[in-house]
Write the structure tokens for this entry.
Amino acid sequence: SQGLNDFRDFLDWILTTLEIAKTRPEINWLFKAHPCDDWYAKINGQRLSDLVAEIDQPHIRLADKNWNGSDLMRSLDGIVTCHGTIGIEATSQSIPVLVPYTGWYGHAGFVSCAKSREDYINRLQTSWWQKQDLNVNREKAELFAGWVFCVPEWYANCVFPDDSRQ
């Protein structure tokens, strides 16, 4: 629904990212499953934890789902997400973010947004996180978050709950 056109689905995107991670042993890759990973696994039968375990390389690990997200985020040099809210949260903490396509916030200009599958793969093979203006990106992310998540009094009856509640 967000326009993930260059990948078959999220699994294709995750597998592509894992393949690149395997070729970059000089980088420590820490993958964190979506909070609904168990629910998604009922549909496609695969969990991120299983995919990471299959790789079994010392520079690729899985973050425990019980770890504090804020502490974890602040310990990272950069974050890759498909279109998760972590992209907004991390950027507002001056942490660079890479997304594989525009999604629902790439147009706002605060994340490094790949133009195609090939561009995404190429960016993963560079030090993309070092080429960011973190102050400008943070300001844009904060403005975007204000427009999207803040609920003025006159808007109080139009709140959509998180999709994880189903």
